[in-house]
Amino acid sequence: MSQTHERNPGCALRREWFEDVQINRTAAERRAAAITSGRTVKKNYQAAWLLRAVQCIDLTTLAGDDTPGRVRRLCAKARQPVRPDLMQAMGVDAVTTGAVCVYPTMVPHAVRALEGSGIPVASVATGFPSGLTPLPQRLAEIRYAVEQGAREIDIVITREHVLLGNWQALHDEVRAMRETCGEAHMKAILATGELGTLTNVYRASMVAMQAGADFIKTSTGKETENATLPVSLTMLRALRDYGELTGFRIGFKPAGGLRTAKDALAWLALMKEELGGPWLKPDLFRIGASSMLADIERQLEHHVTGRYASADHHALS
Ligand SMILES: O=C[C@H](O)COP(=O)(O)O
Known about the structure:
The chain has 317 residues and is of the alpha/beta class. The protein is 45% helix and 10% strand. The chain contains 12 helices and 8 strands. An 8-stranded parallel beta sheet has the order 7-6-5-4-3-2-1-8. Helix 1 crosses helix 10. The radius of gyration is 19 Å and the shape is globular. Glyceraldehyde-3-phosphate binds next to strand 8.
């Protein structure tokens, strides 16, 4: 089926699209390793790929000690993620990150700090990270974040629904969240490290998309197991299958534990191999990361100057 740029409206629960699917972990691990090992991006292209990664980062702070000041500093970094002298040396125009991602009460501070930049504010919501608050409160949290100006909402699913195979309950909850988001785009965090099997990851991905998710996202960053390549591959297969069945393109956001330029290149290679060029842009690909940018900037500096600066030159994120 040809694919459209229109927003995914979702559909009723269609168990037949996922119930018979089984994902073999060994095969997924082998395929993920084949895509990302031995495929080093050539030096000249590497800087371009890293700049592309910067544009896809959801620059994140989700800490208990977040303050308006920290959020403002993060927003300043989102506006100018790479030092202007490096940008100039590479002969490229200014770039920004894909979004800034914060807790709901930090949304107004981020919105103010990003005014005029065009950078959207993403808010986690729905009892992030566990999702174990009653549904009315979780929906109220979405409403609050949207009212405060969040244009993207990162929801968390109830892992119990996946572990017990309660697909209708999962569909109903995610559907309600999507409706509450209104115009704001919804990223559904599956918390894959708590779903037990890759087969569950595939099924949960499919149900989240059937319920109207605009993006599917791996992790909150708070689970013991963060984003991995085999998990990401499994989600991309579900996303591809959903696209073939419905014609709608869904975005993908790996998040949690992604810290290095090497991680960024590995995930970009995975996206390119599995889905192709359209998924290498921020409307369909985000990297959720609180501390990846510093290493990317370091590698870009090395590209420009041939040497690494000491770590304290890149103090933030
Ligand atoms: O959504 C983004 C994640 O919370 C970021 O996780 P991280 O702090 O491990 O980069």
